[in-house]
From TrEMBL:
It is a multi-pass membrane protein. The keyword Transmembrane applies. PANTHER family: CYTOCHROME BD-I UBIQUINOL OXIDASE SUBUNIT 1 (PTHR30365:SF0), CYTOCHROME D UBIQUINOL OXIDASE (PTHR30365). The chain crosses the membrane at residues 20-43, 55-72, 92-117, 129-152, 185-209, 221-239, 391-412, 424-445, 474-497. GO terms for cellular component: cytochrome complex; plasma membrane. Belongs to the cytochrome ubiquinol oxidase subunit 1 family. One of its GO terms (biological process) is aerobic electron transport chain. Keywords: Cell inner membrane, Cell membrane, Electron transport, Heme, Iron, Membrane, Metal-binding, Transmembrane, Transmembrane helix, Transport. The keyword Heme applies. It is found in: Cell inner membrane. This is Cytochrome bd-I ubiquinol oxidase subunit CydA. Coiled coil: none annotated.
């Protein structure tokens, strides 16, 4: 692939976005887990829970700071690398990002200081409220960012102004309650809860294998297993909702994820395994599960899901319609809006397909002059590269079911086996720590790569969205970002490992004294110190 300005801009944004997303899931989930632990401390007044809260909050803080640093860099790119995109859709896209900065991030950043430094200056209840506000702020930040992103996937509540050449918001309510945005939000935050649960479970399992901080570890496992299992089950349910919404708003993405080259007779089967061949337009060695895709995509047994070939033909029709809209647009702009009502009516009838005419600009400056061959090439561009989507989705789903198995096992052992964790299970919990990040990156890749060739689905092609930069400019900044982010990654891993090895160093004496004082009562209540089983 030739790395031109468009591809380098995509590569740079993809690198920064996926790196930033390494921090987001842990921030979302760990903030809630820390708040839950502090709530238990306030309810029970046991110092061990305060010690747990402070320890996991320290790891949350490290992750939070580096997540903020990488997130700020991403937002700068909208103006630097994607200036035409910012001009075209800034009226809609900018609103949720502004609200996120003014409301959610402001609340989160304000109260995070009180959470870390207010332990001895506030009452227990007040500090617990602060911790919950940090958690709520973190999740609200995700909400507004995903509302903005969801609009890019399903642009509702807006219309195109032919005089300003911009999309303008017509309904903030529709933008906010966009079905794709809401499905992405609940699915993303649930995945973050799973990520944090697996992280807490794995670190706690490592402590038990080492015979250190057993009381903290076993209680942390109990919280992580219960919270994580509920979250992992919800991820599956909410992921199903995302698939259903894609049936209405992003049919090509859904067909590419499934490797469905042609429309199947309803209800469509789910391809569990196979090797998509884009050139031959078939999936080799496909293993199908009957009815499943039809149920996920349509919630019925009699509605077909269109295949890639049929959607490509539909794109040809929309390109031709878009060419009419483009011709009307040029007439309106040349006359500064003073045109016959017939032109305005024609534009209104075809404006929904204007973005498809813009696909032709990759091949010709004036889409009205496009040849039949160029129309066919533009229609083919609406098909994303299938095999990365096919496999990234299946890796994500496979790992999701693996998390249910792991968390379910620890939930059962915690509640019905006396917390007698076998060493093989503890080792498994440590090994699986990186897996949620792999699943999260695969999910994010599926969502964003599957939207290509669009920046805003059906409205603005990616090739039109970039700034007028040189390849040299982009290559230099890309190298700079890679270097900067690599340094941040080393810092993150170094600090995380340092403080995990250090362990819960705060309130140790008080916690141990309380445990000795109440040892007999704890034993009577069935709360013994359980060492890992061989």
């Amino acid at each position: 692939m030739e790395l031109d300005v468009v591809e380098l801009s995509r590569l740079q944004f993809a690198m920064t976005a996926m790196y930033h997303f390494l921090f987001v899931p842990l921030t979302l989930g760990l903030s809630i887990i820390v708040a839950v632990m502090e709530t238990v401390y306030v309810m029970t007044n046991r110092p061990i829970w305060r010690q747990m809260t402070k320890f996991w909050a320290t790891l949350f803080g490290i992750n939070f700071v580096l997540g903020v640093a990488t997130g700020i860099t991403m937002e700068f790119q909208f103006g630097m690398n994607w200036s035409y995109y910012s001009h075209y859709v800034g009226d809609i896209f900018g609103a949720p990002l502004a609200i996120e900065g003014l409301m959610a991030f402001f609340m989160e950043a304000t109260f995070v200081g009180l959470m870390f430094f207010g332990w001895d200056k506030m009452s227990k209840v007040a500090h617990m409220i602060v911790t919950w506000l940090v958690a709520i702020g973190s999740n609200f930040s995700a909400l507004w960012i995903l509302i903005a992103n969801g609009w890019m996937q399903n642009p509702v509540g807006a219309e195109f102004n032919p005089l300003s050449m911009r999309m303008e918001m017509t309904s903030f309510f529709e933008v906010m309650f966009n079905e794709v945005a809401q499905a992405k939000f609940v699915h993303t935050v649930s995945a973050g809860y799973v990520t944090a649960s697996i992280f807490v479970l794995g670190v706690s399992a490592w402590y038990m294998l080492k015979g250190r901080h057993i009381e903290l570890a076993r209680r942390s496992i109990a919280v992580a297993a219960a919270f994580g299992l509920a979250s992992a089950l919800s991820v599956v349910i909410l992921g199903d909702e995302s698939g259903y919404s894609a049936t209405h708003s992003q049919k090509m993405k859904l067909a590419a994820i499934e490797g469905m080259w042609h429309t199947e007779e309803a209800p469509a089967s789910f391809t569990a395994f196979g090797f998509p061949d884009q050139e031959a337009r078939e999936t080799h060695y496909a293993v199908h599960i009957p009815y499943v895709m039809g149920m996920i995509g349509t919630r019925s047994l009699d509605t077909a899901i269109p295949g890639i070939a049929e959607l490509e033909q539909n794109a040809i029709t929309r390109i031709r319609s878009g060419m009419i809209a483009y011709d009307d647009l040029m007439k309106i702009r040349e006359a500064k809006g003073v045109v016959d009502e017939s032109v305005k009516l024609s534009f209104e009838n075809h404006s929904a397909d204007l973005g498809f005419a813009f696909l032709l600009k990759r091949y010709i400056d004036d889409p009205r002059l496009a040849t039949e061959e160029q129309i066919l090439m533009a229609a083919e561009d609406t098909i994303p590269t299938v095999w990365p989507l096919f496999w990234s989705f299946r890796i994500m789903v496979g790992l999701g079911f693996a998390f249910i198995a792991v968390l379910g096992y620890f939930f059962v052992v915690t509640n019905w086996k006396g917390m007698n964790y076998p060493r093989w299970a503890l080792r498994m919990a440590v090994i699986v720590i990186p897996a949620p990040w792999i699943a999260a990156e695969m999910g994010w890749f599926t969502a964003e790569f599957g939207r290509q060739p669009w920046t805003v689905d059906g409205v603005l092609p990616t090739a039109m969205s970039v700034s007028h930069l040189s390849v040299t400019d982009l290559a230099i900044t890309l190298a700079g970002f890679v270097t900067f982010y690599s340094i941040l990654f080393i810092i993150e891993m170094g600090l995380m490992i340092k403080y995990i090895k250090k362990g819960p160093y705060m309130d140790v004496a008080e916690t141990e004294e309380w445990t000795r004082t109440h040892e007999r009562r704890l034993s009577t209540l069935g709360d013994p110190v359980v060492m890992p089983a061989e």
